[in-house]
Amino acid sequence: MNSVSLKEACENLQQNCIDCGACIQECLMLQGIGEDIATIATRQPTVDEAYSCSLCGLCESVCPVNLSPKDMFAARRAAAVEQKEIAIEDYRYMFPDRPNNTMSVYRELNNISYADCHPNEKLPVAFFPGCTMLTYAPDLTRELYKQLKGEYEQLTLLPDCCGLPLCQLGMHSREAGFSVNLKAKIQDLEIRKLILTCPNCYYQLRETLADTAIELRTVYEALAPNEVVGRRAPDAGLKITVHDSCPDRKDRIFAEQVRKALVQKGYSLVEMANNEEYTSCCGSGGHVSHFQPDLAKEVTRTRVAQAQKTGADILAAYCLACVLNFATVPENLKTQHVLNLLLEFPQNYENVKLKAKTMFEGSDGQKIWERIMAEETQK
Ligand code: SF4
Ligand code: SF4
Questions:
Q1: Nearest Cα residue to 73 out of 129, 127, 9
Q2: Nearest to 189, CA basis, from 248, 136, 118
Q3: Comparing 115-124, 248-257, 361-370, which segment has the lowest mean pLDDT?
Q4: Is residue 72 scored above 90 in pLDDT?
């Protein structure tokens, strides 16, 4: 992840912003601050402002002079952690490098195990579903493993996090240590090809493994020859609107592959006002829902309203965090992961986030919370 210093990011904006207002027009968070970019850069963002930015990057995409308000807010997060201006340990329930975090405990309580998917074995090809999919879509993860196994006989499953959450929280040195360990694990297992479903994981691991010969493939490339993916869908003809993921906005690798695969299945595509390079956040970016839940909900509702305007039958996303977020909006159109459509494996995501929340209710919930929070963190 790009990590310029706060001073550098602010000076760049102070000196070069032409005050066109394009970024503010696209961003609810900037509109909420109510100041121009040079003014924010001159006084430097507050910690609250930094943790209100979803790090979505739309401001970069629309800037006519290639500036990045996003970099300023990301650098402010890193400075806040470094200077202990935020009690980041209060959010340790999210840290993926702790044995007990919200996701690992959710999997344990719901008996989600991938013991039958040859996890962490020394095999040439590895499927890396990412922690959100591993946790909240175990049936889809298992189905994907099965279909991928049909294409790659010697397939292991890596039940790891890519490390991006640490980066987004502003914990860059901790993320660096995490990534060194993850890279060593992948190399020790002698993996030559890594298959990824999540765009966040894809771009994060592309950086982590940049100096290795390990080949990264999206699940859409890996499943291109698959019989189910290649055949016409039983509900072909339905109109799909695709929500693009923020980390894909620059390279648009997933955006292109997903659209091609959906058209091949016989679906027709209708596009939202903001798509591909100019996609909008789903509301889960930058973990804003943990810091500014009302703002995050408003971002989600705004995006859902865009999807509804297209007249689509289905809102499809290729990041499970986006899918789960959209599924929380009661009046939303049907939401599916793109892979549910391609594999003809429909799922209902409406109550998944609620189920995760209720884990902490009642006296048992309190004990679970204490267990997650009390444990000593790894450094
Ligand atoms: S990264 Fe997204 S949320 Fe943050 S300032 Fe830019 S457009 Fe706004
Ligand atoms: S889009 Fe770029 S130039 Fe325009 S206000 Fe934002 S940062 Fe400044």
A1: 9
A2: 118
A3: 361-370
A4: yes
* Ligand 2 centroid to residue 32 C-alpha, Å: 16
Q: What is the pLDDT of residue 317?
A: 98
* Mean pLDDT of all residues in 9-36: 97
Assess whether the C-beta atom of 35 lies below 6 angstroms from ligand 2: no
**Pocket of ligand 2 contains residue 37 by CB under 6 Å:** yes
Mean pLDDT of 53-71: 98
- Number of domains forming the structure of the chain: 3
CATH number for 308:
3.40.50.1860
Q: Is residue 1 part of a domain?
A: no
Q: Average pLDDT in the 205-225 region? A: 97
Judgement on whether residues 145 and 166 belong to the same structural domain of the protein: yes
Strand partners, 240: 269, 314
Q: Considering the entire predicted model, what is its pTM?
A: 0.95
Ligand 1 atom with the shortest distance to the CA of 70? 1
Residue 242 main-chain phi, psi, to 5 deg: -100, 125
Task: Examine the fold and report which residue of 58, 82, 106 is the final residue of a domain before the chain moves on.
Answer: 82
225, pLDDT greater than 70: yes
Give the pair of three-digit tokens for residue 317.
């996303």
Is the per-residue pLDDT at 247 higher than 80? yes
Sign of the CA dihedral 167, 173, 176, 180? negative
60 contact partners, CB below 8 Å, separation of at least 6: 66, 67, 68, 69, 70, 71
Q: Which residue is closest in CA terms to ligand 1's atom 8? A: 27
